[in-house]
Amino acid sequence: MNNQKKIGIATLMMAFLVCIGAAASAQTLRDRMKIAQDQVPVSVQNAFKQDFASISEGDKGNWYVYYEQESQNGRNVMRPLSYIYRSKGKEDKFEIQYDPQGKLESAKGAAKTESNGLRSTSDNNN
Question: Are 71 and 48 in contact (CB under 8 A)?
Answer without folding.
Answer: no
